[in-house]
Specification:
Blueprint (H helix, E strand, L loop, with lengths): L10 E2 L4 E9 L3 E8 L4 E8 L1 H4 L2 H14 L10 E6 L5 E6 L3 E3 H8 L4 H20 L12 E6 L2 E7 L4 H5 L25 H4 L6 H17 L9 H10 L5 H4 L9 H8 L11 H12 L68 H28 L1
Antiparallel strand pairs: 1-2, 2-3, 3-4, 4-6, 5-6, 7-8, 8-9
Length: 387
């Protein structure tokens, strides 16, 4: 006999939300569809497993990421309405309810996308990532399951990026190049889409997300991954050492714009510094490819710099009632697949350049020196006259 989920049918936050049904679950927790009567709308509520809330370090990271995510406003980022802690200590987050399918489900059901359909979806995802990167948030677990396609404002294939910062919340120490299987049977981070530096446990920058986006685009276009492997460790080794096959070779029956592989290949460079400097630059390259450009555009001037990971935006006024404790992170409506991630060290930053010396200060210094010299000369002259 299946045990009844204790949250289904329950009112939470003083009746603000009514939990209707579970729509996904995983090692992190469960995602529920809920009604918000006061607003007459459906929302998605993610509630963490109690075993995770007991870990103070994880709960602290969860709150920090939720606070940062609540300030992301890009239209292609899933909206966070509320986050906090329930009476029983469970951490939760309330976000917009999305109807549709994730990118993985869509490709499986309809087959690989034509470039004319795939590129606009990835450009939207780049926009969401650009804002997050500037806020110091690196996704760390980008894959087709975390890009949700819905209809919004009459626009089909409207992309919503899910689960920002989720990997950082649940990360565990592991040796470089290894993957940890947790007690819940889930793997944090997805080897098929990991950047080489993430696979090796190195510090991550926005370039890691750009690599993962390129792998997603590769699969969406061809229906295949850049590498063929039998297990997670093989995928990791291939990302670190192997050269991916061009998309033309993986899908010889399809026709691609001439510069498309060149754009993807740059985004999948082994060294982060050889990739696009920002998600914005990657988006501009993809748009140029779709427009039939004969060469890829140069990097955008002055728009690629992002804050170091961990430099989170200053929270504005609390989003929740004063009686609710802050907490949470972005949920993923729909299926919740296994994940894995390596904790990344803070990125190093150069010390600020010493301030330039003011010309006014130099002038004042010279004037003071001249006055001192004048006084000394006057004293000597007076002594000579006295003699």
């Amino acid at each position: 006999m299946t045990q009844q989920d204790p949250f289904i049918g329950r009112d939470i936050l003083n009746g603000q939300f009514q939990i209707l049904q579970k729509i996904g679950s995983g090692g992190m927790g469960s995602v529920y569809k809920a009604l918000q009567p006061a607003m007459n709308r459906m929302v998605a509520v993610k509630i963490l497993h109690p075993k995770l809330t007991n870990r103070k370090d994880l709960a602290s990271r969860f709150r920090r990421e939720a606070r940062a995510m609540s300030h992301l406003t890009h239209p292609n980022t899933v909206k966070v309405f509320l986050y906090g802690e329930l009476d029983d200590g469970s951490l939760y987050i309330v976000m917009e309810f999305l109807e549709g399918k994730n990118l993985n489900q869509t490709v499986r059901a309809e087959g690989p996308f034509a470039p004319e359909r795939a590129i606009p979806v990835l450009v939207q995802a780049c926009g969401a990532l650009e804002e997050a990167h500037r806020a110091g948030i690196i996704h760390r677990d980008l894959k087709p399951e975390n890009i949700f396609l819905c209809q919004q404002g009459g626009m089909k294939d409207y992309a919503k990026v899910l689960d920002f910062g989720l990997a950082k919340v649940t990360e565990k120490e592991m040796r470089p190049g290894s993957v940890i299987l947790t007690q819940e049977g889930m793997v944090f981070g997805t080897p098929e889409f990991m950047s080489p530096e993430q696979a090796q446990g190195k510090p991550l920058t926005p370039a890691s997300d750009i690599y993962s986006l390129a792998v997603i685009l590769y699969e969406v276009l061809t229906g295949k991954l850049p590498f063929e492997a039998k297990n997670a460790m093989d995928y990791i080794q291939l990302h670190v050492h192997a050269t991916p096959k061009p998309i033309q070779e993986r899908a010889p029956q399809k026709t691609f714009p001439p510069l498309l592989w060149k754009a993807i290949e740059k985004a999948m460079a082994k060294k982060p510094e050889d990739r696009y400097a920002s998600a914005l630059d990657f988006a501009e390259a993809l748009k140029a490819v779709l427009a039939g450009a004969t060469e890829l555009p140069p990097p955008s001037d002055g728009l690629s710099a992002v804050p170091a990971p961990g430099a989170l935006p200053t929270p504005a006024a609390p989003m929740q009632p004063t009686s609710v404790k802050t907490a949470a992170a972005s949920p993923s409506p729909g299926s919740v697949a296994p994940r894995s991630a390596k904790e990344d060290k803070p990125t190093t930053s150069l010390p600020p350049a010493p301030p330039a010396k003011s010309p006014l200060g130099l002038i004042i210094g010279v004037a003071v020196g001249c006055m001192i010299i004048g006084m000394v000369v006057a004293v000597l002259a007076m002594k000579a006259m006295g003699k």
